[in-house]
Amino acid sequence: MAGNASVTPGRWIGTGWEIVKADLGNYILITVMALLLAMVGTFIVAGPLIAGLFISVRRRMLEGRTELGDLFAGFNLFIDAFLIFILLSIFALIGLVFLVLPALVVIALYLFPFAFLVDRKLGFWDAMEASRKLVVQDLLGWILFVILLILLNVLGLMLAGVGVLITIPVTVGAIAAAYRDVVGFAYRPPEARGPVIIP
């Protein structure tokens, strides 16, 4: 685990956009499916769906292709993904009780548990601890990254709400790009079927 790359939020968000732009139609469809399933299944399926989004983005980054079925692959990690989502929600709510800054700190500290879960196959608590130990090395830089991601999605909501169909996968792509740079993917495809997008 590297953990020593500098925090470069703008570049990572740009990479997230390049990933989504390369297959915009599929990513909009994946996001629509995820939002509809989250509305039906509520918080119970939110964690596995987020894991599925990471699986989809990681495949695009490593293999140069997008598969709609990857969204549902997150359900193979159901228990750990569910527990990560529940704990993050509780921690963030506790942070909000103490105003906005503590909530931002919590979100920043636990920016990568889904990435560690998907890529390193860590259990829910080990994934959360790996994220915390990584982020604490440059907490202010990661908080800035979180703020920019939040603003990006607020902009998406302002665009009649439909903008989030693009900003959500861009956000996942940006976090995945940050994980790639700072940690490095453990998974390598046996045969890349297209060019890797990340610069």
End-to-end Cα distance, whole Å, is: 20 Å
Shape: globular
Mean pLDDT across residues: 90
User: Structural class of the secondary structure composition?
Assistant: mainly alpha
Radius of gyration: 16 Å
Extract low-pLDDT stretches.
none
As a percent range, the share of strand residues is: under 5%
What share of residues is helical?
Answer: over 70%
> Using DSSP, what is the number of strands?
0
Largest sheet: none
Helix and strand pattern: HHHHHHHHHH
Can you put this structure into words, describing what you see?
- The protein is built from ten helices and no strands.
- The chain is mainly alpha-helical.
- It has one domain (about 10-180).
- Helix 3 crosses helix 7 (about 115-120), helix 5 (about 80-95) runs antiparallel to helix 6 and helix 5 (about 80-95) crosses helix 8 (about 125-135).
- It starts with 8 loop residues before the first helix and ends in a 17-residue tail after the last helix.
- The model has no long low-confidence stretch (mean pLDDT about 90).
What is the topological layout?
Layout: H1 9-21, H2 24-41, H3 43-63, H4 70-73, H5 78-97, H6 100-109, H7 113-120, H8 124-135, H9 139-158, H10 164-182
Helix pairs in contact: 1-10, 2-3, 2-10, 3-5, 3-7, 3-10, 5-6, 5-8, 6-9, 7-8, 9-10
